[in-house]
Amino acid sequence: MRLTVTIDGDLFAKAVQTAGPGVNEAELLREVINTLVRVQAARRLAALGGTRSGMADIRRRRPEPAS
Length: 67
What we know:
Blueprint: H1 9-19, H2 25-48
């Protein structure tokens, strides 16, 4: 897919500098989008934490071994 965007020049220069010399600009933008998707998915998953009503408690420790 082709997309035309306007990006802050200073911010893009920082991203290129952080990524290292010789970085492909298209690959850099692809990685930025992938990272955004992962971060947002993690935030949504964290927001769900403990919201299921009626769910039985989950044991967190193993039972003591029998002697």
